[in-house]
Amino acid sequence: MNIALIAHDRMKDEMVNFVVAYEQVFKEHDLFATGTTGQRIMESTKLSVFRYMSGPYGGDQQIGAMVAKNEMDLIIFLRDPLMAQPHEPDISALLRLCDVQGIPCATNVATAEILTKALERGDFAWREVVHKYKSESGEK
């Protein structure tokens, strides 16, 4: 599964702590992240993370492109609900794309834990069906 990890500045410590707690689950999957978040996760774990640009510099849009092509299976985006973000339109576009494509997206640690536990149990097998259908039908 392809999993994106994104965290606003004041949420990065929480993201790192979360990924450390579930490192055994995440090591079985391909991880993608925006710049600093990915760097901090790699410094704190043994996980390999493909890093895109920082969110304000286009990282959210780069991950959004994967979502639009149905190449992302899960997003954990720890947003800071108390701080205005200069790239709010990019964030809204990413969340909208998740809704359009039916990609599960957690925006807080409580929902992230529920989705991660489901991932650990194998409850995301339906994503494999989606991938298989799209490849067999020639959909992109």
Question: Describe it for me?
Answer:
By secondary structure, the chain is an alpha/beta fold. The protein contains 7 helices and 5 strands. The chain has helices at 12-21, 23-26, 35-44, 59-68, 88-101, 109-121, 125-137, and strands spanning 2-7, 30-33, 49-51, 74-78, 105-106. A 5-stranded parallel β-sheet has the order 3-2-1-4-5, sandwiched between helices. β4 (74-78), α5 (88-101) and β5 (105-106) form a beta-alpha-beta unit. α1 packs across α3 and α4 (59-68) runs parallel beside α5 (88-101). The chain is globular.
What's the gist of this structure?
The chain is an alpha/beta fold. It has 7 helices and 5 strands; from the N terminus they run βααβαβαβαβαα.
Provide mean pLDDT, rounded: 90
Could you name the CATH topology?
Rossmann fold
Spell out the CATH superfamily: Methylglyoxal synthase-like domain
Low-confidence stretches: none
Task: Return Rg in Å.
Answer: 14 Å
User: What is the helix/strand order?
Assistant: EHHEHEHEHEHH
**How would you describe the oligomerization state of the chains in this entry?**
single chain
Please tally the helical runs, counting DSSP H or I stretches of 4 or more residues.
7
Structural class: alpha/beta
Total domain modules: 1
Helix content: 40-55%
Query: What is the CATH first-level class name?
Result: Alpha Beta
Binding site for substrate: 8, 12, 34-37, 54-55, 87
Function: Catalyzes the formation of methylglyoxal from dihydroxyacetone phosphate.
Enzyme class: lyase
Active site: 60 (proton donor/acceptor)
